[in-house]
Fold this protein.
Amino acid sequence: SQQGEEDPQALSIQEGENATMNCSYKTSINNLQWYRQNSGRGLVHLILIRSNEREKHSGRLRVTLDTSKKSSSLLITASRAADTASYFCATDAEGAQKLVFGQGTRLTINP
Amino acid sequence: NAGVTQTPKFRVLKTGQSMTLLCAQDMNHEYMYWYRQDPGMGLRLIHYSVGEGTTAKGEVPDGYNVSRLKKQNFLLGLESAAPSQTSVYFCASSYLQQNYEQYFGPGTRLTVT
């Protein structure tokens, strides 16, 4: 069964606007990661947030984690055309030896 | 450093044929993974390895075999390809354990007719 599920499945915004994507998961985790995938390419790691952290920043990215609600959000501020990609959350079920990826959010930034 | 490389980039097989996908990493990572990605289904783990000489099953292992004879290489084999194995295959590796970030290869697009 899917551990992480992203919402929305697709998001289209204007350049310069902020984009927010959400991820929900089902079981306790050690950490949650976000990845980006440009069309036809492999995934690229963006940010990792541990279960004892609530918020983390990296450049224009802000990730929050609410373990009580089993959810995370990825905020991209001041979006650019180059941010057009699919974004995936990945979780490790506590004690498991693997990551489970969600189905992704397809983000389109319109110029 | 090349990072994670995969060969081939594209392949078309007929049903019943066999092939091996090669993944190589030059980062001295212990963990390596094979995923498949299908439209609307995200990535699903096929097999993974926690070190040279070890392999373990992931979420969708049926129809695939793997080997990790050398630390830097992880091979994925299809003994008798089926149309249901048409997919994009990604290899990834990580340092020490799965809770660290994974580095992905560029993918192999496989079509089985």
About this structure: DSSP finds no helices and eleven strands in chain A. Chain A touches chain B through 23 residues (CB under 8 Å). The radius of gyration of chain A is 13 Å. The CA atoms of residues 35 and 46 of chain A lie 5 Å apart.
